[in-house]
Amino acid sequence: MSKIGIFHGCAHLCEPYVPQVCRVVRIESQTRDVKSIRLQTLDGARPFDVLPGQLGMLSVPPFGECMFAATSFGDDYVEMAVKRVGFVTERIHELGEGDQVGLRGPYGNWFPYESCRGRDMLFVSGGIGLAPVRSFIRHCLDHRDDYGRIDIVYSASSKADLVYLDELTNDWPNRPDTHVHVSVYHGSDDWDGPVSYTAPYLEQVFRDNGLSTENRAVVLCGGPSLFRTCRATLSELGVSPADIITTLEARMKCGVGKCGRCNIGGRFICLDGPVFTEEELASVARDF
Amino acid sequence: MAISKSAVAALLERISATQPVFVPCKVSGGSKFVEFGEGVVPAFDMQNTKEPPKELFFPATEKMYRWKRHEGELSIEQAALADAPFTVFGVRPCDMASIDRLDQVFLTKGFVDEFYEARRNAATVVAMACPTADRTCFCSSMGVDSGAAPSADVLLTDCGDCYEAAAQTPRGEAAVRAWGDAVSAWAPASAPKRAACTLEVDAEGLAEKLPHLFENDLWEDVAASCLTCGTCTFVCPTCYCFDISQDVRADEGSRFRCWDSCMFADYTQMAGGHNPRARKSARVRQRFMHKLCFFEQRYGTGLCVGCGRCMRECPASVDITRIIERIGEADV
């Protein structure tokens, strides 16, 4: 099996700092604090060409702008999932359909959907971490024959915090050789599935389903504790760091590796990332 | 070629008739590059200005675009680029080396920063070799020759009564031609005055060694005295990190960028609460790792040019040469 190769030499031909005016064309409430928002240019086109895993800077004058991964995209839209956690995301949640916002991008690299062809895919994410991974899952499902067995392990704090629940329960499990495993950290009366943190649940799924480390790619995205624990679990299971793909997050301002704050070692998450393999990260001195 | 020192004032007058010319000058509270004009007395005998010439290419605040909302419709208009020609006169070799670093940041690696590019292309840089050294100068340890500034358009070298003038680029040749009779063809009678750096430190192999010192006690030790005031980053000629913020007036406003500092906790503070560099020692480590290791990994040269401003201005006497020494002494 050839090695998973991730492209890091992004060059941006777009005007990097100045957003284009876009319209909010659809808003869906995913959970109590997550909304998915579809954006389109004023003349009804997709704001920019985007690949799975790439980023866009959503700008809500006068309040500020934030970087989000495109969770999906179509011929005439880009969709982002926004969790309400701070000042700007609070304002984004107040937007209505038809409202005009700024959007600039695309930024960063993309999931290695080409070099993962032929592999069994295991997607592991927690909470809002499903949002960036979802673009890759959708790509694999749209090109189903290019990939082997697909497993999706997803956890959130409680049932009410599971994003894209409709796809998780009604769409993805019905696709060929696609297996969705969902757990919550805190059970409730309306939840009869597993109650477990992501890492032990991942281990259980791996063993119960007899998943092999051979010819596998693991895509990992979640908060710092999920990263730490799942990395350790995957290591115990014998998955090579070269087969683990992650997408990182940091505070970002410029999006093109100039403003300085999102570095890990000599690389910038917004430009060289956000997608790295664990093998690449293992050799980098980093703060998180 | 040479310029008599007594003819420099007239030369500056001549240049400033066609374009702004910025010269090192003492100002209230310090010294910086200011536009030459009436009442401005250039301080060419002074060593490094308190504020570096960085601001002429990368202003402390710079408008990026304006936005306006009218009956629900948003419009966005990019700010005009500052591309009017200007001259910077009297840039020290360390500061010229810092402009080379800024060029790498803003003009390479997949994307060109138009705002910086416009100013940089509009500038004629006249460097001035150092006849003396400050008490905190250590540029020779960081690979800078205090008698040379290869990327400057013109290099002036102090020869007592006059400056030897050497045009080093086509733009520099054009500039020297335009200076006319202020420049004479004769060679200076006396030899150039040269100065040796006051401080010396062995800065070899830092980029290779530092990744192994990420968890070293050194950072806690430095952080113990550091106030994280950010002074070092604002007087540093190579620090380029910026924030993007906004100025709002009712339904219109502008987004601008402004200098930021890795010494501040909110620099990396994320919405939701996570901060990868919440600890002071992590921020101190980031600053020195960036200067001495990360930048070299990315661009092939270090980000410290040895101007000595950070230790001269630091209220807690944090001394980068001492830190470099400690890195050299540390066991991997």
Automatic annotation (TrEMBL), chain A:
Q: Which CDD domains does the UniProt record give?
A: sulfite_reductase_like
Positions of [2Fe-2S] cluster binding: 254, 259, 262, 270
| One Pfam short name | DHODB_Fe-S_bind
Q: Could you tell me the keywords of this UniProt record?
A: 2Fe-2S, Iron, Iron-sulfur, Metal-binding
| One Gene Ontology molecular-function label | flavin adenine dinucleotide binding
InterPro entries to which the protein is assigned, alphabetical: Cyt_c3_hydrogenase_gsu (IPR012165), Dihydroorotate_DH_Fe-S-bd (IPR019480), FAD-bd_FR_type (IPR017927), FNR_nucleotide-bd (IPR039261), OxRdtase_FAD/NAD-bd (IPR001433), PyrK_electron_transfer (IPR050353), Riboflavin_synthase-like_b-brl (IPR017938)
Cofactors, names only: [2Fe-2S] cluster
Top-level division of the source organism's lineage:
Bacteria
Domain (FAD-binding FR-type): residue spans on this chain: 17-113
The record's remark on the cofactor is:
Binds 1 [2Fe-2S] cluster per subunit.
BP GO terms, sorted:
pyrimidine nucleotide biosynthetic process
PANTHER family per the UniProt record, alphabetical: ANAEROBIC SULFITE REDUCTASE SUBUNIT B, DIHYDROOROTATE DEHYDROGENASE B (NAD(+)), ELECTRON TRANSFER SUBUNIT
What is the name of this protein? Hydrogenase
- Identify the species of origin: Slackia faecicanis
UniProtKB/TrEMBL annotation, chain B:
What keywords are annotated for this sequence in UniProt? Iron, Iron-sulfur, Metal-binding
What the entry lists under InterPro entries is as follows: 4Fe4S_Fe-S-bd, 4Fe4S_Fe_S_CS
GO MF terms here are: iron-sulfur cluster binding; metal ion binding
PANTHER family (UniProt xref): ANAEROBIC SULFITE REDUCTASE SUBUNIT A
Iron-sulfur keyword on record? yes
Alphabetical list of Pfam families matching this protein: Fer4_22
- Asked if the record carries the keyword Transmembrane, the reply is no
In what residue span(s) does the 4Fe-4S ferredoxin-type domain sit?
A: 216-247, 295-326
User: Under what name is this protein listed?
Assistant: 4Fe-4S ferredoxin
